[in-house]
Amino acid sequence: MSISNIKLSQETPFLIIARVKVKDEKQKEYIELGKEIDDIVNETEPGMLFHDLNCDSKDSCSFTWTEILKDSSSFVFHLNSPFVKETIKKQVNLIDECL
């Protein structure tokens, strides 16, 4: 529940938090793919202000992506990126579930 009175517009930054549970024994492969994704997104998406992958210290199979995008146009650009679409397909075989 949000109790904020903030008015949103096309210039409002986007915050994305995506949590995933990786299949056991696939953590290293997922981290390597995460590094590849992070490097390319940071190089090719000027509207991506922050892009990071973290592993839960209490569960080595749980990961959290945190992304901050400049505005709604940057979010649409990110979603339509052929690289992003390709890497989402690569993740399917590594992820056990989305949290």
Pick out its properties.
99 residues; alpha+beta; Alpha-Beta Plaits; four-stranded antiparallel beta sheet
Task: Outline the secondary-structure elements.
Blueprint: E1 14-22, H1 27-44, E2 48-56, E3 59-69, H2 72-80, H3 82-92, E4 95-98
Antiparallel strand pairs: 1-3, 1-4, 2-3
Helix pairs in contact: 1-3
Q: How would you describe this protein?
A:
The chain has 99 residues and is of the alpha+beta class. The chain has one domain: Alpha-Beta Plaits, CATH 3.30.70. The chain is built from 3 helices and 4 strands; from the N terminus they run βαββααβ. Helices cover 38% and strands 33% of the residues. β2 (48-56) and β3 form a beta hairpin. The protein has helices spanning 27-44, 72-80, 82-92; strands at 14-22, 48-56, 59-69, 95-98. Strands 2-3-1-4 form a 4-stranded antiparallel sheet. The two termini are 18 Å apart. The model has no long low-confidence stretch (mean pLDDT 89).
